[in-house]
Amino acid sequence: MLPEKYSGTNYSENKTILGLLADSKKVNDLVDSNPKYWHILLDGKTKAELAIYKRIVRDIDSPNKNWALIHKNKEYFWALAEGSHWLLDLLNQKIFSTSTESAFHPLQTDH
Predict the structure, then answer these.
(1) What pLDDT digit, counting tens, does each position of 8-30 carry?
(2) CB under 8 Å, gap of 24 or more: what pairs does 17-21 form?
(3) How far is CA 53 from CA 13, 30, 70, in A?
(4) How far apart are CA 71 and CA 77, in angstroms?
(5) Using CA atoms, how far apart are residues 48 and 100, in angstroms rounded to an integer?
(6) What is the C-alpha to C-alpha distance for residues 23 and 17, in angstroms, rounded to an integer?
(7) Contact 21, 72 (CB under 8 A)
(8) Nearest Cα to 68, choosing from 56, 78, 80?
(9) Tens-place pLDDT, residues 33-82
(10) N or C: which end of the chain has fewer CB within 10 A?
(11) Torsion on CA atoms 16, 83, 54, 77, rounded to nearest 10
């Protein structure tokens, strides 16, 4: 949540801006490090969140390209976080359920 003053082109090479871009590369590298990570994230709620992300980023435009990129990353990471939260919550419900009827069984295909 950078202050609006960083949107000016004179801040495009600011160390805070460049640091955020470097951090975003770490997150992207982690997601891309294993194809299974991406496939798990793409299924379920994350797919819908990424569709919302695509609509939002169409309107992000700035003469400061790093500023625009940071905002696009923020929206992308928000979509990943929303989808991941949903997935982790679902797994927690299934794995830690006290009911044997609804317990998660990794070898069953109906869950």
Answers:
(1) 889 899 999 999 999 999 988 88
(2) 17/66, 17/67, 17/70, 18/66, 20/70, 20/73, 21/66, 21/69, 21/70, 21/73
(3) 26, 19, 13
(4) 10
(5) 31
(6) 10
(7) no
(8) 56
(9) 888 777 777 766 788 888 899 999 999 999 999 999 999 999 999 988 88
(10) N
(11) 10
Distance CA 78, CA 30 (A): 15
The two three-digit tokens of residue 20, written as one number: 């955020």
End-to-end CA distance of the chain: 38
Give residue 18's identity as a one-letter amino acid code.
L
Which residue carries 């609804």 as its tokens? 102
Three-state DSSP state, 103: coil
